[in-house]
Structures are given as C-alpha cells and as structure tokens.
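#lab-general

N.A. 3:47 PM
ok so I finally got the sequence cleaned up, no stray characters, all 175 residues accounted for. can someone with queue access submit it? mine expired

B.Y. 3:52 PM
send it over

N.A. 3:53 PM
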Amino acid sequence: MKLHQLKIDFNAEQDRLLMLVSTDDGAEVRMWLTRRFVKLLWPLLVKLAEEASPRIKVQANVEARKALLGIEHQKAVQKADFSKPFQETPRSTPLGAEPLLLARIQTGNDPKGLPVVSLHPTNGQGITLTLDEVLLHSVCRLLQAAVSKSDWDIDLRLPGAEAEPAEQAEPRTLN
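B.Y. 4:20 PM
back already:
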C-alpha cells in the first residue's frame, strides 16, 4: 500500500486534530490526534528530521545543526505539493469508519534508513508511515498549520526554521 494523500485539520467540536491518510489502492485511515499526543509526537518528528539528514548528523556545532535543519525543511517543503485539495471520495476504511484515538507512537528507520513512524490507538491496529525527506517535512508543516488553528497554546517550531506565518487570530479578552 502506498500513501496517496494526507490531510490534518483541527476539529473544534472534538478539540482534536483529524488526520486522514489515503492510499493509492482506495483505502483511508482516520485518526484523532489529541493535544497531548501532538506534544509527544512533535519532538519525535524533529529528531527524525535531524537524524534523516547526513549533513546534520555530522555537524558538531548545535547552532549549525539548527540552521541546516531550517534550510532542509524549507527545501523539502518547497518540493511538496500543497496545492491539490484532499480528494473527498468514498474509500474503504480498513481500520473502521470512526477515527482511531491515537495513544502510542513508535519511531525508527526502515532497512533503507528512511524514518518510520507508527501511530496506534491504545488497543488494536494503527498505521506505519515510511517518511522520505519531503513527506517528513510535509507532515511537520501540516501539523503546524492545524495546530495554529487550535486554541492549544502550542508553538510547533523546527529549530532553525523561520516561524510559519500563522493566520491572524482574533484578539481575545481575558478577565
């Protein structure tokens, strides 16, 4: 099964992110990401991004590593195609029509050295994504955009990457 499209949106009613993963064979997996889960996932994605780059791994200087990560993030995101909307066509849902509530994360590398992220509910099946450079940084970008629409007070930044311009939030009055 090969990944076809990925979408991450904030659902205000659920106060969660809904992640949709469609495959080239017409399947779709739906997953809920809670605030807690995103806070656990983000540092793992940053670490995978750092470890996936040979240029970053060999750099001893911490500031240089951060700068290289920012540069590589920008290059990878520019290669991604965010212009195509997610295809909302009927698909099979092998893990169920209701989104899985994710609770467990495992990371590693496949035999070719590509980063792998496994996302699972407390019980039952989940999915494993093999992430090339473009997909890894695209997932980071999609998470940043979705979290910026929430009221979670989480700032997802890649070290060395310029902050993504967030949509202007309406001013809030605190009493």
